[in-house]
Amino acid sequence: MFTKVCAALAVLVASTLGVAGTAHAQSYKLNQALPEDRDTILQEITIAADRVTATILLRNTSKETIEACAHASARPESFSIKDLDTGKVVKQLGSTGLKACDQGMDTIKPGARKTLKIEFPGLPATARRLQLGENNCQPKPDDDMEYWCFAEIVLTNKK
Q: Which of 8, 55, 80, 149 could make a disulfide contact with 44, Cβ separation 3.0–4.6 Å?
């Protein structure tokens, strides 16, 4: 969970070489920052037959140390990814790169960066419009934490 990041609508366009649905994983280079937080960047989504991996870069360009953590897979606040065309939602299998929120917060000093990788079960090879975020991209009443969300991610093949 990112304490300084607000939910945002982000339309992301990516390109890839090859065709989705082949035996090889398809990697979509996004490098798209959240509109409200240019330091939080969805770098890449890789779709393989049995899993989806999202890579998020957290930079700190401020003059103050910030804190961040990722919810454990079993928590309702953990990351999910949704295929917006079929409605299929899958919860994260795990994440690396940040402390689990139940173990405290990671600090990111000014000028530093952290990379968060999140693993999900597979999605259909035809998935092209996705939603990625914490707590199913919903705010939680009576919670001082801000849940982070890329509301719409559009994956396109290189033509």
A: 55
- One-letter amino acid identity for 43? Q
Residue 126's CB is within 10 A of a number of other CB atoms, namely: 10
Provide the pLDDT for residue 8. 32
Q: Closest by alpha carbon to 81, among 157, 12, 31, 4?
A: 12
| pLDDT score at 154 | 92
Gap between the Cα atoms of 154 and 61, Å rounded: 27
pTM (global) more than 0.90: no
Contact between residue 114 and residue 78 where contact means Cβ atoms under 8 Å apart? no
**Buried-state track 16-33, b at ≥16 Cβ within 10 A, e below 16:** beeebeeeebbbbebebb
Beta-carbon neighbour count of residue 37 at 10 Å?
Answer: 17
The pair of structure tokens assigned to 129 is: 């419009």
| CA–CA dist 133, 144 (Å, integer) | 17
How many residues does the structure list for the chain?
Answer: 159
Number of other CB atoms surrounding residue 11 within 10 Å: 12
Q: What is the mean pLDDT of each run of 10 residues along the chain (159 residues)?
A: 36 36 76 87 93 96 95 92 94 96 94 97 90 86 79 73
